[in-house]
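We close this part of the discussion by returning to an individual protein. Part of our work consisted of pairing the sequence of a single chain with a tokenised description of its backbone. What the numbers capture is local backbone geometry rather than side-chain detail. The amino acid sequence and the backbone structure tokens for this protein are reproduced below.
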Amino acid sequence: MSAIYLVRHGQASFGAADYDVLSPTGEVQAKVVGEALRARGITPVRAVAGSLSRQRATAVTALAAAGLDLPVEEDPRWNEYDHIGLVQALAEREDVEPPTSPREFQAVLDRALRQWVDETTPGFAQFADGAWAALVELAEGLGSGGVGVVFTSGGILAALASRLLGGASVVALNRVVVNAAVTKVVHGRAGASLVSFNDHAHFEGPRRDLLTYR
């Protein structure tokens, strides 16, 4: 049985000219989750990230903090969906004011994501199927006893968890994914199973100021 630890990237730069850059908080989150992996004795033999800057930056910082000298393989199937585009499209379609705060953005994103998931067009299905294929391919490539770590995004985690839980709400799962949280999936003869979702104990207690969702 192989094990894959799925790490959400650290906080991105909401409201900045380039969203796809870790915020100062995101940089610290990446370091802390790496330290958490090290403390738990997790020793992956492969590290994978999507091609987004925030994912790759989280990977580099976390692996260094974990004391792991692994190359970061790139696989765009781990990339996030275009959440900014979904929000902008809904705002234009329904003639609503563009959101200006993280709370407002989340409210509009929930509506936009729900519509996208429910559409008959293949967009969301292709996104979710790509993530699933990437997961299974990595798990099978690791072989029995192999461990891998993936640096990805909240939408990917929500889509995978929904499938592993038999159809749980993607929107509800997406809303609660914590920046730099860890989700664990194991894969064996019976296929893939979700062992833990959105583990963020490393941001509790004295580190609770680092707990963010967006």
